[in-house]
Design goal:
This protein is α+β, with helices and mostly antiparallel strands and about 475 residues long. Helix content is about 65%, strand content about 10%. The protein has a four-stranded antiparallel beta sheet with strand order 1-2-3-4, with helices on one face. The longest helix is centred in the middle third of the chain and has 67 residues.
Length: about 475
C-alpha cells in the first residue's frame, strides 16, 4: 500500500505540474498583416468596382467556344504539371497526418536477448573470483509521451496544415495558368489562320498586279524597275506565308505539349466566331486574396513560417516528458512468463535546455528571417497581382478604339492603292506610290487581326489576373 501511495502521489505531482505549466502557453495565433492589401491595389479609374468579380465564375462561362472547351478539359485531365502538383498535395497531406499524430504517445514492444560476462581482472571480477556467464531474456513494452505545454506541437501541426493548403493553392495556380495558356494559344492560332487568309489573298492580288505591271511595261507606260518591284512584293508575301505556316505548326506543337499528347494538328474554329465578355467585373482589391491561387499560396507560406517561429521559440522552454517501461525479464527462459519476472518503471520530468551550442538560438533567428522573407514575398505577390490586373484592364479597355482607328487606316490605304493604280495606268503617278500603299495596306490589315487577338488575350489575362480559371 505504501508503494501504491507513493506512485499515486508521483502521478498527481506530474499532472499538477502539467496543468500549471500548460496555462503558460506562449504560442501566438496568426493574423494577416494589416498592410497586405488596400482598396487602391489596382487602377480601376476606367472601370467601376463591383462586389462580384469575373474570376468567381467558371472558365466554361468565359470561354464559350465548344472546341476550346474540349481542349481545356483535355489539358486539365492530362497535363503533367497538374499531375505533379497532385503528388505534391499527397506528400503534404502525409506530413499533415504525421503532425496530427505527434500528440499521441510512442509505443513499442519486442523481445530481447543479452549475453554478458565480466572481466576477472576488474574489482568486481576479483570479488566474484571466477568468470561467470549470464544469459538474460526479456520482453519489454516502452511508452513515451511529450506534453505540448508550450504549443510547440500545435505550431508544427499548423505549419504542416499551411504547407498542405499551400500545395492545394499551387495546384489551383497550375490549373489557372493552364486554362489561360490554352485559351491564349488557341486565340493566337485563330489569329494566325486569319493572317494566313489575308496573306494568301494578298499574294493573289500582287500576282495580278505583277501581270498588269508587265503589260504596262510592254505598252511603254512603266519600266523594268516597276516590274522587278512588283515581283519583289510577290516574293515578300510568299515568304510571309511560309513564316506564318511555321508559326502555326510551332504553336500547335506547344498546345499538344500542354495537352500531353504527341505533336499534332489542333482542331479549331474561326476568329469571327469568338465571343469575349462584353462586361468586365473586377471586384474589390481584397477579392484577390480569396481568388488568386498564387496569392493564397504566398500567404500560406507566411503562415507556415509564422508557426515555425512559434515552434522555434518553444524550444527555449522546459520539455515535460513521461516515459514508462514494463514487461517480463528473466535469466532463465523457462521462468520468463512467471509473476516474479514482471517489471515496470514510470519516469516523469522537466528538462530545461541550458547549453546546446547555440542550436536553439540559431533555429529561432533563422525562423525569424524566414518569416520576414515570407512576409516580403507575400507583399510582393499581392502587388504583382494588382499590377497584372491594371495592365490587363488597360489593354482590354483600349482595344476597341485601337481597332476602330486601324480599320479607318486600312480603308484609307485601300483607297490609296486603288487611286494610285488608276493614276499609274494613265501615266500620272510613280509606281512606287502604288507599292508603298500596297505594303501599308497589308500591314494595317495584319495589325487589325493582331489587335483583335490582343483584346482576347487581354480578356484571358484579366481573368487569370483576377484569380479565375481554377474553378
Amino acid at each position: 500500500m505504501k508503494k501504491l501511495s507513493v506512485y499515486i502521489k508521483g502521478t498527481a505531482f506530474s499532472v499538477l505540474t502539467l496543468a500549471v505549466v500548460s496555462s503558460c502557453n506562449i504560442r501566438k495565433e496568426y493574423e494577416r498583416p494589416k498592410d497586405a492589401v488596400n482598396e487602391n491595389l489596382f487602377r480601376t479609374d476606367m472601370l467601376p468596382k463591383d462586389s462580384l468579380s469575373m474570376a468567381e465564375i467558371s472558365w466554361r462561362e468565359v470561354f464559350t467556344d465548344p472546341i476550346l472547351q474540349r481542349h481545356i478539359e483535355k489539358t486539365l485531365e492530362n497535363n503533367l504539371d497538374i499531375r505533379i502538383a497532385l503528388q505534391s498535395i499527397n506528400s503534404a497531406e502525409a506530413y499533415l497526418k504525421q503532425s496530427k499524430s505527434a500528440y499521441e504517445p510512442t509505443l513499442s514492444i519486442g523481445p530481447n536477448y543479452t549475453f554478458q560476462t565480466q572481466s576477472v581482472n576488474t574489482q568486481f571480477g576479483q570479488i566474484i573470483g571466477a568468470r561467470r556467464y549470464v544469459n538474460q531474456y526479456d520482453i519489454t513494452l516502452s511508452l513515451g509521451f511529450e506534453a505540448d505545454i508550450w504549443g510547440k506541437l500545435k505550431s508544427q501541426e499548423k505549419a504542416q496544415l499551411a504547407t498542405y493548403l499551400g500545395s492545394v493553392a499551387a495546384h489551383k495556380s497550375v490549373k489557372s495558368g493552364l486554362v489561360a495558356s490554352v485559351a491564349s494559344a488557341y486565340y493566337q492560332l485563330l489569329t494566325y489562320d486569319e493572317q494566313k487568309k489575308i496573306i494568301t489573298e494578298t499574294i493573289k492580288v500582287r500576282e495580278s498586279n505583277l501581270e498588269t505591271t508587265k503589260a504596262l511595261k510592254e505598252a511603254g507606260t512603266l519600266t523594268e524597275v516597276a516590274v522587278q518591284q512588283s515581283e519583289a512584293l510577290v516574293y515578300n508575301a510568299q515568304a510571309s506565308l511560309i513564316d506564318i505556316d511555321t508559326q502555326i505548326q510551332l504553336l500547335e506543337n506547344t498546345m499538344s505539349l500542354l495537352m500531353a499528347v504527341p505533336s499534332q494538328s489542333i482542331e479549331r474554329s474561326t476568329l469571327e466566331a469568338q465571343v469575349i465578355p462584353a462586361e468586365v467585373k473586377t471586384g474589390f482589391s481584397a477579392s484577390l486574396l480569396a481568388n488568386r491561387p498564387d496569392v493564397m499560396q504566398a500567404e500560406y507560406t507566411l503562415m507556415n513560417a509564422f508557426e515555425l517561429t512559434n515552434a522555434a521559440k518553444a524550444q527555449f522552454y522546459p520539455t515535460l516528458k513521461l516515459t514508462g517501461t514494463g514487461g517480463v525479464q528473466s535469466v532463465d527462459i523457462d521462468h520468463l512468463f512467471s509473476v516474479n519476472s514482471l517489471f515496470a518503471s514510470v519516469v516523469g520530468g522537466l528538462a530545461q535546455p541550458l547549453l546546446n551550442k547555440r542550436q536553439i538560438r540559431t533555429n529561432y533567428d533563422v525562423s525569424l528571417a524566414n518569416k520576414e522573407s515570407a512576409y516580403l514575398n507575400f507583399r510582393k505577390t499581392v502587388l504583382t497581382a494588382g499590377k497584372e490586373v491594371s495592365d490587363a484592364i488597360r489593354v482590354f479597355s483600349v482595344q476597341d478604339s485601337f481597332i476602330n482607328l486601324k480599320t479607318k487606316e486600312l480603308n484609307a490605304y485601300k483607297n490609296s492603292v486603288s487611286f494610285s493604280q488608276e493614276l499609274v495606268n494613265y501615266g500620272m503617278a510613280n509606281y512606287l506610290e502604288v507599292l508603298t500603299a500596297n505594303v501599308n495596306a497589308l500591314n494595317a490589315e495584319l495589325n487589325i487581326s493582331n489587335a483583335q487577338y490582343s483584346k482576347m488575350k487581354a480578356a484571358v489575362d484579366l481573368y487569370q489576373a483576377l484569380g479565375g480559371g481554377w474553378r
